Amino acid sequence: MTDFPWLLSMIVVPAIGAAAVAALPRDREALAKQLALGVSLLVLVLAVLATVAFDAGGDRFQLTTSVAWIPDFGVDFALGVDGIALVMLLLIGVLMPVVVLASWRETAPGRRSVRAFFAWLLLLESLMVGVFAATDVFLFYVFFEAMLVPMYFLIGSFGGPRRQYAAVKFFLYSLVGGLVMLAAVIGLYVVSSGELGEGTFAFDALRQIDIDPGVQKLLFLGFFVAFAIKAPLVPFHTWLPDSGAEAPIGGAVLLVGVLDKVGTFGFIRYCLPLFPDASRDLAPFVLVLAVAGILYAALLAMGQSDMKRLVSYTSIAHFGFIALGIFAFTTEAGTGAVLYMVNHGISTGLLFLAVGMLIARGGSRQVSDYGGVASQAPVLAGVLLVAGLASLALPGTNSFVSEFLVLIGSFPTRPVFTVLATVGIILAALYVLILYQRTMHGPPRGVLLDEPEPSETLEPAVSGGGGASAATATVTAPAPPAVPRLRVPDLGRRELAVAVPMVALIIALGFYPQPLVRLIEPAVAATMVDVGADPAGVQPATTDVEGAD
Amino acid sequence: MPELSPADGLIASSWLLIALPLAGAAVLLLGGRRTDRWGHLLGVATVVSAFVLGLLCTVQLDGRAVDVDLFTFVSVGSLDVRAGLLFDPLSAVFVLLITGVGALIHVYSVGYMAHDPHRRRFFAYLNLFVAAMLLLVLGDNYVALYVGWEGVGLASYLLIAFWYERPAAATAAKKAFVMNRVGDVGLALAIFVLFAQLGTVSYAGVFGSVGLLTGGTVTAIGLLLLLGACGKSGQFPLQAWLPDAMEGPTPVSALIHAATMVTAGVYLIARSAPIYDLTPAARAAVLAVGAITLTIGAVAGCAQDDVKKVLAYSTVSQIGYMFLAVGLGPIGYVAGLAHLLTHGFFKAGLFLGAGSVMHAMDDSVDMRRFGGLASRMKTTFVTFGLGYLALIGFPFLSGFYTKDAIIEAAFDRGDGWGSLLGWVAVLAAGLTAFYMTRLMLMTFAGRPRWEPGVHPHESPPVMTVPMVLLAVGSVLAGFLLVVAFPLEEWLAPVFGAPTEAEHVVAPLTVSLLVTAAMVLGVLAAWVFVGRREVPVTAPVRVSPVTRAARRALYADTVNESLFMRPGQWLTRALVFIDNRGVDGAVNGLAATLGGSSSRLGRAQTGFVRSYALSMLGGAVVVAGVLLAVTVG
Questions:
Q1: Which residues of B touch A374 (CB under 8 A)?
Q2: Cβ within 8 Å, pair B614-A521
Q3: Kind and range of the H or E element at A351?
Q4: pLDDT tens, residue by residue, B520-537
Q5: Where are the domains of chain A?
Q6: Block means of pLDDT (10 residues each) for chain A, length 549 residues?
Q7: Could B165 and A443 be called an inter-chain contact, meaning their C-beta atoms sit closer than 8 Å?
Q8: How far is Cα A44 from Cα A37, in angstroms, rounded to an integer?
Q9: A538 contacts in chain B (CB < 8 Å)
Q10: Is B561 an interface residue toward A (CB < 8 Å)?
Q11: Are B369 and B359 in contact, with CB atoms under 8 Å apart?
Q12: What pLDDT sits at residue A1?
């Protein structure tokens, strides 16, 4: 079973699916959706089987495939996964069918065909698998850049009113980051040819080169800037709220849930092992950005009136936690950070989906346009609450485990940063509960209100005269004023099919996270060796406690 | 801490204690309307069976500390968090309180919520609460406790906001959750310090090695745990959420915001006794918090007109007594826990009585519109009256035994601080008698001041039977726990064998002092409230002291002006800065690089082409460099 090219097939299957969907006639939209759903489910099956084939205690990279691509420059089409990449592939596998289902009613503005939407989704899936599965730095770079194109079209062609502005901004930011990284990739090649006699892009070979600390810093910064834009750390973040707000919901889920994780994935896969000295030297600088982001973005989330922008800002705060975990250099925090990457994709994914379901009913993204929805749509309210509670990392939800691991693992090496980050959990409670209270609690209110006819309710009051004759007014009023009522349908069957698996995952991974942790830990421990930290984890400050318990 | 025994017999199944109500909650929440007809019965059944199971486990316990290891929750690096339960005399006491009082309140709720269309949802949340609370007290490590800790916070949030269409209820729920989270930060940080220093988070591991830590570290851990305890238990400076939590249905106030959840802070400190035993400084902080809070609560309780608010401030104040007790260290742990248990009976009974009164008065809580209810609601009056006597420390009722024990222990400290704390506690006992007598007089005595159309009537038996049982508990619990079957001996495996304390002030003297304070409080209430006609609206021209007491010594004002308003201002400022400053700077930069900013927006059409071009450019650069490197 290990011989089957799992990774290659996970890239090829959705790519072929994308081509097939795009090739369908314009009027076969239903078939396009069914095909997209089928392909995404097939990829999920492949991801699960690949996980079964993976041996958590085995080699660092498994399920490898390698074909010489540009032999003259040592570029290989080399694929392989460690536990870190594997769990990201699982996340992609889970999110994709959910996103396809959630986008079922997606319509294309203008004359565009909605089948293009699903073709771009599948192409994006193929490229996202590639970016996590590449073990050749040049190949990684190619996927990293190529991934922009489908996301650009998903935002720019199918997004909200300011979609073009948002898409261009997304593109420009990513482009700048990509170019800086390109320079660093080339630099890395130059260094490798100096050290090894022959240039290479192979990750494992590059990892073993001892690079001059000064050069390391430059190369580190090249990669870091690209990744810090992708998984936006403050102050590289301002593109995300625009993109997250304007992207169609499915696109937003993939953008924040998976695409942005390439940044944090890059930190732990490329920055730490390739530039260990620079990582250690520059860690305080990264941690300042991470913790500043946790607090700053959480405060900004509280101040947002647009629900999708709000969710985008919460993600920026969460990326701060992930960066903190990665740059704390302990196995516990690093494992927590990778787990966080998966959990955040599920919890924030569901938060986006729930908010999207509300927006689909009211047609507005403004928090202030809703109120009291829970009384009419209790299941929708429950889904939003579960997603929100996962977002504030309540114990019993998946995010608690990862946030807890990040914080408890970071505290021993970085107590001050950790204490500041822990304060962020108060802010998280605020931004989630404020959103929930304003939309779901309180008396019925807002755009979903079934407005009573103004002519019937107003006229008797006017004819009744001033306040002096209140008694006569009640006598003359023919009928009590119509009570405004909310008219919100609760979740339908398709929406339940979207929400239920996500809620189930949130709770299941909240109580039994160990299977994922077991997959992730060896890869993180190996990275800790690369960066010169103890792979066995935190050693207690009081060392002679053995046997005490 | 005694040696851990492996799980055997029924105790091996003690995870069912948590699983039963959790399953109840799951069925009721997922089952939807299909379960409307019998949902409340299932809710009652799960808690009653948990009580029976808890009772059987307790019988089998025999002074041991039994560890029930379930599965690996998360294990990574040197961190190993087990899902495991610790069934020992201390957790057994809490299990019985939670499931016992919980079962009675579930039964009462069947009647109280009978006309609420969402009764099923109510029972689901109530079951969820019981499950989380049992996890809190049964977990064998600090992480399990934390999971239960925030779990009860969630249940509390859901139940305070049960009538979420009322903005006040929704806001109170949010306030409770957020203020609890402030405390949770303390608890979380304490766990981080324990792991960083000792490499373990299990009770057995921590208590076995905490002696290796330096004094400063232990004190830091003690203070952080105290912050957590203050949040959950509504203690100074995090007390302001608890009175607002009265927006929830009254059975919730009885179970969560009086008898069980809010005492979790006391449990945390008592459970962490091996830590606090090593840090007099942190114990002093616990004492200070207790003394300050018991005074604030008692003073505020004297000036409230809302019957539930009086009881809420009373709870704040009584938990202050418990903090005071456990802050005294070994001489106070048992006294604090005994008061926790008796308080669980009489305060739950008082709340259920208040609920019965509200039921009769069309959900009004304004005591100024009560009066003369004694004759209309005899059962409620008698059961409430017994709870009242127990609370004010009427001789030989529950509060008399357990409150006296705390005050005795304070004097037994033997130094000036001990005397000060003792006197504060005596004074507050007088205030307690005052505000509770005022409540009794305004509610049950005098002439009716009812709103037009109100026709008070006694509640149905499904409500009065639990009230009667709790009243019996209020009368007897103190005698049983202090004299007949001393709690001290039951808890000896946890806190050590009882020793005959050297009394600085003779117990009889303390009892006389407290009783005298109580009589003075009752008399004062009679003079100021009982002899006069109660005005139906609160007098406006009152002394500054009354004004301050009405507003609970301005706790909300302080929180709002120190945190809320500056926070809102900061948020608005940051939103402006982020939109104009950070984003503006980057947009400006992009515009400078790419031409005019207006072109940025319109560049869209030709954009892909230009991207392709730049890709090509990039590729050329790459190829050039690669060539140069390979050739050169």
A1: 164
A2: no
A3: helix A331-362
A4: 999 999 998 888 888 888
A5: 281-451+486-539
A6: 84 96 88 95 96 91 90 90 96 96 81 84 96 96 93 90 88 88 92 87 91 91 94 89 93 95 96 95 94 94 93 96 97 97 97 95 91 91 96 96 97 95 94 95 86 48 39 45 73 93 96 96 95 90 54
A7: yes
A8: 11
A9: 77-79, 195-196, 199
A10: no
A11: no
A12: 54
pLDDT in tens, A296-310: 999 999 999 999 999
Q: Where are the domains of chain B?
A: 290-550, 558-594, 603-632
* Chain A interface includes B574 (CB < 8 A): yes
Q: How far is CA A214 from CA A220, A269, A279, A281, A328, in A?
A: 10, 21, 12, 11, 22
Contact B235, B320 (CB under 8 A): yes
Task: Give pLDDT, residue A310.
Answer: 96
**Is the CB of B189 inside 8 Å of chain A's CB atoms?**
yes
Nearest by CB to A168, from B165, B192, B603: name it: B603
**Is some CB atom of chain B closer than 8 A to the CB atom of A434?**
yes
- Answer for the pair A401, A513: CB distance below 8 angstroms, yes or no: yes
Q: Look up residue B471 and give its two tokens.
A: 């009243």
Residue A225 · residue A284 · CB < 8 Å: no
- Model ipTM? 0.91
User: Does B196 lie at the interface with A, CB-CB under 8 angstroms?
Assistant: yes
B582 interfaces chain A, CB cutoff of 8 Å: yes
Please identify which residue in the block is written with the tokens 């809620």.
Answer: A503
Question: Which token pair is A144?
Answer: 């990293």
pLDDT at A72: 83
Interface test with B, best of A172, A313, A417 (most B CBs within 10 A): A172
Q: Rounded to 5, what percent of chain B is helix, strand, coil? A: 75, 5, 20
Q: How many residues does chain A have?
A: 549
Q: Do B174 and A372 touch (CB under 8 A)?
A: no
CB-CB neighbors (< 8 A) of A440 in chain B: 164
Instruction: Kindly state whether B35 is in contact with chain A, defined as any CB-CB distance less than 8 angstroms.
Output: no
Closest CA to A426 of A393, A385, A381, A383: A393
Residue A340 C-alpha, separation from nearest chain B C-alpha, in angstroms: 14
Residue ranges in chain B whose pLDDT is less than 70? 1-2, 501, 581-632
Question: The tokens 């968090």 sit on which residue?
Answer: B81
Q: Which helix (H) or strand (E) holds B79?
A: strand B79-87
Closest CA to A507 of A337, A346, A311: A346
Contact of A314 with chain B, judged by CB distance below 8 Å, is answered with no
Count Cα neighbours of A63 within 13 Å in the Cβ-side half-sphere: 29
CB atoms within 10 A of CB A216: 21
CA nearest to A318, candidates A291, A278, A280: A291
Would you call B334 an interface residue with chain A, using a CB distance cutoff of 8 Å? no
- CB contact set of B218 (below 8 Å; sequence gap of 6+): B210, B275, B278, B279, B282
The pTM assigned to this predicted structure is: 0.91
**Cβ B232 vs Cβ B261: under 8 Å:** yes
How far is Cα B410 from Cα B415, in angstroms, rounded to an integer? 9
Contacts of B599 (CB under 8 A, 6+ apart): none
Residues sharing a CB contact under 8 Å with residue B94, sequence separation 6 or more, in sequence order: B137, B267
